Amino acid sequence: xxxxxxxxxxxxxxxxxxxxxxxxxxxxxxxxxxxxxxxxxxxxxxxxxxxxxxxxxxxxxxxxxxxxxxxxxxxxxxxxxxxxxxxxxxxxxxxxxxxxxxxxxxxxxxxxxxxxxxxxxx
Length: 122
Hints:
By secondary structure, this protein is α+β, with helices and mostly antiparallel strands. Helices cover 62% and strands 15% of the residues. The protein is built from 6 helices and 3 strands, in the order H-H-H-E-H-H-E-H-E. It has helices at residues 5-13, 17-31, 35-52, 67-78, 82-90, 102-114, and strands spanning 56-62, 94-100, 118-121. The protein has a 3-stranded antiparallel sheet with strand order 2-1-3, covered by helices on one side. Helix 4 (67-78) packs across helix 5 (82-90) and helix 4 (67-78) packs antiparallel against helix 6 (102-114). The two termini are 41 Å apart. The relative contact order is 0.15.
């Protein structure tokens, strides 16, 4: 009996990261492909899952060259005092808000980027 694609995907989903790395190496040897080709389908899976997320963490990656503007934007978004917002901005990369919906996360990202920050949604 042949395994279906779903059977294979379910088996891979239950594997540890180390097992997947070993599987990719075995696939490279057996089929004569490189890791980039073998890993390409796996890379599409997490990206598709990220699109379906409904809660995001807004992470300040860098405050850029306009630290004062970023501190003001962080204070506005979080309600923190000046010292707390300054400490948060200077500790970048740091989470600004966690578990927010997509619209709020994108709005906050936009405000922080307009202030000069580099922001990531996770």
